[in-house]
Amino acid sequence: MQPIDAVPVRRPGRWIAALAVALLAAAVVRSVATNPRFQWDVVGEMLFSDRILHGLVLTLELTVIAMVAGVALGILVAVARMSPNKLLAGAGAFYVWLFRGTPVLVQLLFWNFIAALYPTIELGPIHADANTLITPFMASLLGLALNQAAYMAEIVRAGILSVPEGQAEAASALGLSRAQTLRRIVLPQAMRVIVPPTGNETISMLKTTSLVSVIASSDLLYSAQLIYSQSFQQIPLLIVVCIWYLAITTLLSLGQSMLERRYGRGVARARRETKPMRLPNLAVAR
Amino acid sequence: MIVATGVHKRYGTLDVLKGIDLTVQRGEVTCLIGPSGSGKSTFLRCVNRLERIQGGRLAVDGELMGYKTKRGRLHELREDEIAAQRAQIGMVFQHFHLFAHMTALENVVEAPLRVRKVKREDAVAQGTALLARVGLEDKLDAYPSQLSGGQQQRVAIARALAMEPKLMLFDEPTSALDPETVGEVLDVIRDLAADGMTMLVVTHEMGFAREVADTVVFMDEGRVIESGPPDELLERPAHPRTREFLARVL
Ligand SMILES: Nc1ncnc2c1ncn2[C@@H]1O[C@H](COP(=O)(O)OP(=O)(O)OP(=O)(O)O)[C@@H](O)[C@H]1O
Ligand SMILES: [Mg+2]
């Protein structure tokens, strides 16, 4: 065998770009490390302080509960929208229109002031004062979950539509009920389409929960705001907040890729070993 | 086993079935032939009520599909009652429609577990035996995407048989297959015929129809044109439309 000993193509453009990026990065790192006003000592001190950790726990609770409720309600809304019953379908469409068409911040404020609309809430035997029932935490949950359900409904609907009709047909031909067909045959296959955007939605939800600081729900951001309103250490506390958000989003991204692999079962087996896409090497075409 | 009288089916303004009269005897194999668009698949789908009919009567094993008669009037069946009727009729599709997220064995045991509420170990034993019967004992854990077309169709047949149906419907079971795998699927169907399974088979395989069918039914434009034993209908068709069709496909 004759070895190939060729001179590789020179790519001066790439070298110059890489050099520029490296220089820029070095400058930023130097400035961040040496500017005393970042107050890294305060960052280190506050990162695991009680109040920040409490805020973090509330943020995580809000994210998890709002997402779980949003997904469950979203599936119901999606199924309603796709129902042969016109009234149900219309109700589903109206829900999506209403909750997707208004800013989540406005919806949070609305739930916060719901007592002005309904001072007492009666649900059958339950009878409560709206101000005691709708705490800032409840208002936050309602606002986030109901809004999320509208987005999830659209994602779930796209997922259900992605499953070939023959699958549901084969299931009915075997005698499975509509509910069984949905739960056992259609939804598991729709997951492949539903999971990736739901992962993004979860990451997005984690950050959206910071909006609840406007209704004095003591989440991660609001806790930091409370601290710096007394200590005036705004920048280090906001850095603490960013560090926590980044840490959690990183974990969530890892979880997401694991879920995607699980729900790719049976289909697209070859795609399991996908590599991240790179821009095509234009030089090859020459 | 199937008694259809004057079955009408419309899609919007398009009359697809214009009064089908057809009888399939218990233990017999009936092959349904006819040009594309003549309504063969539609009729098959009416038999297990995947489609509702607009007129006529369609009974399987003495039961009207989708209705019951009470005090001389027809009453529509509830969804679960229709599902119970469907569970007794096996259906095999041209494009298999295996559940893509399940292995071959999971495909076969799904309906017995959920519909007939069979115990898991019994369902698995039965499913394994059925897959062995169609020659796939070494593919129990394969996903549909890892199987050839002929293998997928054999899993689909095993899946339908797992419900212990009294009637099997086949809609062009070999039309989507490579020529070399058509034989393995026809072998399985032939085997079922020998076991006395009642079957209604839509097919373009005239050789198979001649060999296996007790009755061949020729359909055109939503009507049954003629029917009879294969050697009569295929060799000496009475109707010019049948002759024309056979001349094209044979
Ligand atoms: N869901 C539907 N909506 C509207 N028209 C339909 C539908 N399904 C079938 N048709 C029409 O009904 C007619 C009969 O179709 P069918 O599939 O029963 O024919 P076929 O005999 O099975 O043909 P092939 O041999 O091509 O499978 C065709 O004209 C088709 O366009
Ligand atoms: Mg057809």
UniProtKB/TrEMBL annotation, chain A:
Bilayer topology term: Multi-pass membrane protein
Residue stretches spanning the membrane: 55-80, 92-114, 134-153, 234-255
Gene Ontology molecular function: transmembrane transporter activity
Alphabetically ordered keywords of this record: Amino-acid transport, Cell membrane, Membrane, Transmembrane, Transmembrane helix, Transport
This protein's GO CC annotations: ATP-binding cassette (ABC) transporter complex
GO annotation terms (biological process): amino acid transport
Location(s), subcellular: Cell membrane
Domain ABC transmembrane type-1: residue ranges: 56-256
Family under the similarity heading: Belongs to the binding-protein-dependent transport system permease family.
Protein name, per record: Amino acid ABC transporter permease
Organism: Solirubrobacter phytolaccae
TrEMBL record, chain B:
Membrane topology note: Peripheral membrane protein
Annotated GO MF terms: ATP binding; ATP hydrolysis activity; ATPase-coupled polar amino acid-transporter activity
Enzyme nomenclature, EC number: 7.4.2.1
Pfam families: ABC_tran (PF00005)
GO cellular component: plasma membrane
Domain ABC transporter: 2-246
Predominant place of localization: membrane
InterPro entries membership: AAA+_ATPase, ABC_ATPase_HisP-typ, ABC_transporter-like_ATP-bd, ABC_transporter-like_CS, MetN_ABC_transporter-like, P-loop_NTPase
Keywords: Amino-acid transport, ATP-binding, Cell membrane, Membrane, Nucleotide-binding, Transport
Tree of life domain: Bacteria
Top enzyme class: translocase
Annotated catalysed reactions: a polar amino acid(out) + ATP + H2O = a polar amino acid(in) + ADP + phosphate + H(+)
Protein localization: Cell membrane
Family, as annotated: Belongs to the ABC transporter superfamily.
Entry protein name: ABC-type polar-amino-acid transporter
